[in-house]
Amino acid sequence: MSIFVDKNTRLIVQGITGHVGTFETRLMLQAGTRIVGGVTPGKGGRTVEGVPVFNTVQECVDSTEANTSIIFVPPPFAASAILEAEDSGIELIVCITEGIPVKDMVRVFRSNEGNDMRLVGPNCPGITSPGQARVGIMPDSIFVPGRVGVVSRSGTLTYEVVDALSKNGIGQSTCVGIGGDPLIGTSFIDTLEMFQNDPDTSAIVLIGEIGGTAEQEAAKYIREHITKPVVGYVVGISAPPGKTMGHAGAIISGGGGTAKEKIQALEGAGVAVAESPEDVAVKIKELI
Q1: Whether the Cβ atoms of residue 195 and residue 204 lie closer than 8 Å to each other
Q2: What is the pTM of this model?
Q3: CA-closest candidate to residue 255, choices 201, 219, 211
Q4: What is the mean predicted confidence (pLDDT) over 263-271?
Q5: Measured distance CA(246)–CA(279) in Å, rounded
Q6: Beta-carbon neighbour count of residue 199 at 10 Å?
Q7: Which of 187, 28, 168, 5 is nearest to 160 (CA)?
Q8: What DSSP letter does each residue of the chain carry, written as one string?
Q9: pLDDT at position 190 over 90
Q10: pLDDT confidence of residue 105
Protein backbone atom coordinates (compact mmCIF):
# COMPACT_ATOMS: atom_id res chain seq x y z
CA MET A 1 0.00 0.00 0.00
CA SER A 2 2.75 2.48 -0.78
CA ILE A 3 5.32 3.82 -3.17
CA PHE A 4 8.83 5.15 -2.43
CA VAL A 5 8.75 4.53 1.38
CA ASP A 6 7.33 1.73 3.54
CA LYS A 7 8.15 -0.41 6.58
CA ASN A 8 11.38 -1.57 4.88
CA THR A 9 12.74 1.98 4.63
CA ARG A 10 15.99 2.35 6.61
CA LEU A 11 16.33 6.10 7.01
CA ILE A 12 19.22 8.34 7.95
CA VAL A 13 18.85 12.02 8.85
CA GLN A 14 21.50 14.39 7.48
CA GLY A 15 21.63 17.40 9.80
CA ILE A 16 20.15 15.46 12.72
CA THR A 17 21.80 17.57 15.44
CA GLY A 18 20.28 20.84 14.20
CA HIS A 19 17.10 22.20 15.78
CA VAL A 20 14.83 21.17 12.89
CA GLY A 21 16.62 17.87 12.32
CA THR A 22 16.25 16.85 15.97
CA PHE A 23 12.61 17.96 16.16
CA GLU A 24 11.56 16.16 12.99
CA THR A 25 13.54 13.04 13.93
CA ARG A 26 11.43 12.77 17.09
CA LEU A 27 8.19 13.12 15.11
CA MET A 28 9.24 10.65 12.40
CA LEU A 29 10.13 8.09 15.07
CA GLN A 30 6.73 8.62 16.69
CA ALA A 31 5.15 7.97 13.27
CA GLY A 32 6.86 4.58 13.16
CA THR A 33 9.65 5.44 10.71
CA ARG A 34 12.68 3.20 11.00
CA ILE A 35 15.52 5.73 11.53
CA VAL A 36 18.82 3.88 11.72
CA GLY A 37 21.29 6.77 11.96
CA GLY A 38 22.05 10.45 11.68
CA VAL A 39 24.89 12.46 10.18
CA THR A 40 26.49 15.72 11.28
CA PRO A 41 30.19 16.33 10.46
CA GLY A 42 32.26 16.63 13.65
CA LYS A 43 29.51 15.33 15.94
CA GLY A 44 29.89 11.59 15.40
CA GLY A 45 29.58 9.39 18.49
CA ARG A 46 26.60 11.24 19.95
CA THR A 47 23.00 10.08 19.98
CA VAL A 48 19.85 12.08 19.14
CA GLU A 49 16.52 10.65 20.31
CA GLY A 50 18.38 7.35 20.75
CA VAL A 51 19.66 7.45 17.14
CA PRO A 52 23.45 7.09 16.65
CA VAL A 53 25.19 10.04 14.95
CA PHE A 54 28.04 9.61 12.45
CA ASN A 55 30.51 12.09 10.93
CA THR A 56 29.90 11.04 7.32
CA VAL A 57 27.11 9.42 5.30
CA GLN A 58 29.46 6.63 4.21
CA GLU A 59 30.24 5.73 7.85
CA CYS A 60 26.53 5.72 8.60
CA VAL A 61 25.64 3.54 5.59
CA ASP A 62 28.46 1.08 6.34
CA SER A 63 27.20 0.65 9.92
CA THR A 64 23.42 0.70 9.36
CA GLU A 65 22.73 -0.52 5.77
CA ALA A 66 20.58 2.59 5.27
CA ASN A 67 18.78 2.94 1.92
CA THR A 68 17.10 6.35 2.31
CA SER A 69 18.22 9.79 3.49
CA ILE A 70 16.35 12.91 4.50
CA ILE A 71 18.21 16.22 4.42
CA PHE A 72 17.78 19.06 6.94
CA VAL A 73 21.00 20.86 6.01
CA PRO A 74 21.21 24.68 5.55
CA PRO A 75 20.92 25.88 1.91
CA PRO A 76 24.63 26.66 1.28
CA PHE A 77 25.57 23.07 2.18
CA ALA A 78 22.50 21.13 1.00
CA ALA A 79 23.70 20.33 -2.52
CA SER A 80 26.92 18.86 -1.14
CA ALA A 81 24.83 16.81 1.31
CA ILE A 82 22.79 15.40 -1.61
CA LEU A 83 25.96 14.50 -3.50
CA GLU A 84 27.49 12.88 -0.41
CA ALA A 85 24.40 10.69 0.01
CA GLU A 86 24.50 9.78 -3.67
CA ASP A 87 28.19 8.85 -3.51
CA SER A 88 27.47 6.64 -0.47
CA GLY A 89 24.97 4.48 -2.34
CA ILE A 90 21.73 5.88 -0.91
CA GLU A 91 18.83 4.89 -3.20
CA LEU A 92 16.28 7.56 -2.23
CA ILE A 93 17.15 11.09 -1.09
CA VAL A 94 14.44 13.43 0.22
CA CYS A 95 15.63 17.04 0.48
CA ILE A 96 13.47 19.28 2.66
CA THR A 97 15.80 22.30 2.54
CA GLU A 98 14.32 25.48 1.00
CA GLY A 99 16.38 28.16 -0.74
CA ILE A 100 19.14 26.09 -2.34
CA PRO A 101 20.85 28.19 -5.06
CA VAL A 102 19.81 27.12 -8.57
CA LYS A 103 23.43 26.81 -9.68
CA ASP A 104 24.00 24.29 -6.88
CA MET A 105 21.03 22.18 -8.02
CA VAL A 106 22.33 22.27 -11.60
CA ARG A 107 25.52 20.70 -10.24
CA VAL A 108 23.45 18.01 -8.50
CA PHE A 109 21.44 17.16 -11.60
CA ARG A 110 24.56 16.94 -13.76
CA SER A 111 26.04 14.52 -11.24
CA ASN A 112 22.83 12.45 -11.16
CA GLU A 113 22.73 11.85 -14.91
CA GLY A 114 22.84 8.15 -15.70
CA ASN A 115 22.54 6.75 -12.18
CA ASP A 116 19.66 5.06 -10.37
CA MET A 117 19.43 7.38 -7.34
CA ARG A 118 16.06 9.10 -6.86
CA LEU A 119 15.83 12.62 -5.46
CA VAL A 120 12.55 14.03 -4.09
CA GLY A 121 12.62 17.81 -3.64
CA PRO A 122 14.27 20.10 -2.72
CA ASN A 123 11.93 22.51 -0.94
CA CYS A 124 9.37 19.76 -0.36
CA PRO A 125 7.41 18.33 2.61
CA GLY A 126 8.59 14.79 1.91
CA ILE A 127 6.71 11.50 1.61
CA THR A 128 4.20 9.77 3.88
CA SER A 129 2.90 6.22 3.55
CA PRO A 130 0.30 6.21 6.35
CA GLY A 131 0.85 3.51 8.96
CA GLN A 132 4.24 2.60 7.49
CA ALA A 133 6.70 5.48 7.28
CA ARG A 134 6.89 9.25 7.29
CA VAL A 135 9.99 10.69 5.60
CA GLY A 136 9.41 14.41 5.86
CA ILE A 137 7.58 17.08 7.78
CA MET A 138 3.93 16.28 7.04
CA PRO A 139 1.68 16.18 10.16
CA ASP A 140 1.12 12.49 10.85
CA SER A 141 -2.21 12.96 12.64
CA ILE A 142 -4.17 13.85 9.47
CA PHE A 143 -3.32 10.66 7.55
CA VAL A 144 -5.35 7.46 7.27
CA PRO A 145 -4.13 4.31 5.48
CA GLY A 146 -6.04 3.63 2.28
CA ARG A 147 -5.97 3.42 -1.52
CA VAL A 148 -5.73 7.00 -2.84
CA GLY A 149 -2.34 8.30 -3.96
CA VAL A 150 -1.63 12.03 -3.60
CA VAL A 151 1.07 14.00 -5.45
CA SER A 152 1.52 17.74 -4.94
CA ARG A 153 3.81 20.72 -5.57
CA SER A 154 2.61 22.40 -2.35
CA GLY A 155 3.03 21.23 1.23
CA THR A 156 0.17 23.24 2.73
CA LEU A 157 -2.29 22.20 0.02
CA THR A 158 -1.26 18.58 0.54
CA TYR A 159 -2.23 18.86 4.20
CA GLU A 160 -5.58 20.51 3.40
CA VAL A 161 -6.53 17.92 0.79
CA VAL A 162 -5.40 14.95 2.90
CA ASP A 163 -7.33 16.30 5.88
CA ALA A 164 -10.47 16.57 3.72
CA LEU A 165 -9.98 13.05 2.37
CA SER A 166 -9.47 11.55 5.84
CA LYS A 167 -12.49 13.36 7.32
CA ASN A 168 -14.58 11.80 4.53
CA GLY A 169 -13.29 8.31 5.28
CA ILE A 170 -10.93 8.18 2.29
CA GLY A 171 -7.49 6.80 3.18
CA GLN A 172 -4.22 7.33 1.34
CA SER A 173 -1.68 4.84 -0.04
CA THR A 174 1.19 7.37 -0.27
CA CYS A 175 1.37 11.17 -0.30
CA VAL A 176 4.31 12.67 -2.21
CA GLY A 177 5.32 16.32 -2.01
CA ILE A 178 7.53 16.87 -5.05
CA GLY A 179 8.42 20.48 -4.17
CA GLY A 180 7.75 23.89 -5.61
CA ASP A 181 11.16 24.95 -6.93
CA PRO A 182 11.80 25.38 -10.68
CA LEU A 183 14.39 22.55 -10.52
CA ILE A 184 13.23 19.42 -8.70
CA GLY A 185 14.13 15.74 -8.79
CA THR A 186 11.06 13.49 -8.93
CA SER A 187 8.29 14.94 -11.13
CA PHE A 188 4.52 14.60 -11.41
CA ILE A 189 5.06 12.11 -14.25
CA ASP A 190 7.51 9.96 -12.23
CA THR A 191 4.99 9.73 -9.39
CA LEU A 192 1.99 9.11 -11.64
CA GLU A 193 3.83 6.19 -13.22
CA MET A 194 4.53 4.73 -9.76
CA PHE A 195 0.88 5.09 -8.69
CA GLN A 196 -0.32 3.54 -11.95
CA ASN A 197 1.89 0.49 -11.31
CA ASP A 198 0.99 0.21 -7.60
CA PRO A 199 -1.74 -2.46 -7.22
CA ASP A 200 -2.83 -0.95 -3.91
CA THR A 201 -3.54 2.53 -5.31
CA SER A 202 -7.05 2.80 -6.79
CA ALA A 203 -7.22 6.52 -7.57
CA ILE A 204 -4.89 9.53 -7.73
CA VAL A 205 -5.10 13.14 -6.59
CA LEU A 206 -2.82 15.66 -8.38
CA ILE A 207 -2.39 19.07 -6.73
CA GLY A 208 -0.88 21.81 -8.89
CA GLU A 209 -0.22 25.51 -8.78
CA ILE A 210 0.66 28.33 -11.16
CA GLY A 211 3.98 28.63 -12.98
CA GLY A 212 5.85 26.37 -15.36
CA THR A 213 4.31 23.58 -17.45
CA ALA A 214 4.51 20.58 -15.09
CA GLU A 215 0.71 20.21 -14.89
CA GLN A 216 0.31 20.37 -18.68
CA GLU A 217 3.01 17.70 -19.10
CA ALA A 218 1.29 15.59 -16.43
CA ALA A 219 -2.03 15.99 -18.28
CA LYS A 220 -0.47 14.65 -21.49
CA TYR A 221 0.98 11.69 -19.57
CA ILE A 222 -2.37 10.98 -17.89
CA ARG A 223 -4.17 11.00 -21.24
CA GLU A 224 -1.69 8.52 -22.72
CA HIS A 225 -0.75 6.25 -19.79
CA ILE A 226 -3.02 6.46 -16.71
CA THR A 227 -6.07 4.21 -16.50
CA LYS A 228 -6.94 4.94 -12.86
CA PRO A 229 -9.33 7.78 -11.90
CA VAL A 230 -7.54 11.11 -11.35
CA VAL A 231 -8.84 14.19 -9.52
CA GLY A 232 -6.93 17.44 -10.03
CA TYR A 233 -6.82 20.60 -7.96
CA VAL A 234 -4.97 23.71 -9.19
CA VAL A 235 -4.69 26.89 -7.14
CA GLY A 236 -3.86 30.44 -8.19
CA ILE A 237 -6.80 31.11 -10.51
CA SER A 238 -6.74 34.82 -9.57
CA ALA A 239 -2.95 35.24 -9.32
CA PRO A 240 -1.61 38.36 -11.12
CA PRO A 241 1.07 37.79 -13.82
CA GLY A 242 4.66 38.43 -12.74
CA LYS A 243 4.05 38.05 -9.01
CA THR A 244 5.65 35.18 -7.13
CA MET A 245 3.07 33.27 -5.08
CA GLY A 246 4.90 31.48 -2.29
CA HIS A 247 7.05 28.98 -4.14
CA ALA A 248 9.95 29.97 -6.36
CA GLY A 249 8.27 28.05 -9.17
CA ALA A 250 4.83 29.58 -8.58
CA ILE A 251 5.01 32.59 -10.86
CA ILE A 252 3.20 33.43 -14.07
CA SER A 253 5.67 34.79 -16.61
CA GLY A 254 5.26 35.74 -20.25
CA GLY A 255 1.52 35.10 -20.03
CA GLY A 256 2.07 31.35 -19.52
CA GLY A 257 1.68 29.00 -16.59
CA THR A 258 -1.74 30.20 -15.50
CA ALA A 259 -4.12 28.11 -13.44
CA LYS A 260 -6.72 28.37 -16.22
CA GLU A 261 -4.33 26.80 -18.76
CA LYS A 262 -3.48 23.98 -16.38
CA ILE A 263 -7.12 23.27 -15.54
CA GLN A 264 -8.01 23.15 -19.24
CA ALA A 265 -5.15 20.74 -19.92
CA LEU A 266 -6.18 18.43 -17.08
CA GLU A 267 -9.85 18.47 -18.05
CA GLY A 268 -8.83 17.71 -21.62
CA ALA A 269 -7.06 14.61 -20.33
CA GLY A 270 -10.19 13.37 -18.59
CA VAL A 271 -9.20 14.55 -15.10
CA ALA A 272 -12.01 15.63 -12.77
CA VAL A 273 -10.86 19.06 -11.58
CA ALA A 274 -12.01 20.12 -8.10
CA GLU A 275 -12.61 23.67 -6.85
CA SER A 276 -11.54 23.17 -3.23
CA PRO A 277 -9.92 20.55 -0.95
CA GLU A 278 -13.40 19.47 0.18
CA ASP A 279 -14.46 19.13 -3.46
CA VAL A 280 -11.48 16.82 -4.05
CA ALA A 281 -12.97 14.41 -1.50
CA VAL A 282 -16.42 14.67 -3.12
CA LYS A 283 -15.06 13.92 -6.59
CA ILE A 284 -12.90 11.03 -5.37
CA LYS A 285 -15.99 9.49 -3.75
CA GLU A 286 -17.83 9.75 -7.05
CA LEU A 287 -15.02 7.98 -8.92
CA ILE A 288 -14.15 5.05 -6.65
Answers
A1: yes
A2: 0.92
A3: 211
A4: 96
A5: 23
A6: 8
A7: 168
A8: --SS--TT--EEEETTTSHHHHHHHHHHHHTT--EEEEE-TT-TT-EETTEEEESSHHHHHHHH---EEEE---HHHHHHHHHHHHHTT-SEEEE------HHHHHHHHHHHTTS--EEE-SS--EEEETTTEEEES--GGG--EEEEEEEES-HHHHHHHHHHHHHTT--EEEEEE--SSSS-SS-HHHHHHHHHH-TT--EEEEEE-SSSSHHHHHHHHHHHH--S-EEEEE--TTPPTT---SSTT---BTTBS-HHHHHHHHHHTT-EE-SSHHHHHHHHHHH-
A9: yes
A10: 93
Look up residue 146 and give its amino acid. Answer: G
Rounded CA separation 212/67 (Å): 32
Question: Which of 152-156, 197-201, 255-259 is the most confident on average?
Answer: 197-201
Nearest Cα to Cα of residue 148 among 185, 198, 215? 198
Active site residues: 247
In contact, 84 and 56? CB cutoff 8 Å:
yes
Pairwise CA distance, residues 73 & 18, whole Å: 8
Torsion angles phi and psi, residue 211, rounded to 5: 95, 140
The pLDDT tens digits of the residues spanning 200-255 come to 999 999 999 888 889 999 999 999 999 999 999 998 766 666 665 556 565 555 55
Q: Which of 187, 211, 208 is nearest to 269 (CA)?
A: 208
What is the secondary structure of 66-129 as a DSSP string?
--EEEE---HHHHHHHHHHHHHTT-SEEEE------HHHHHHHHHHHTTS--EEE-SS--EEEE
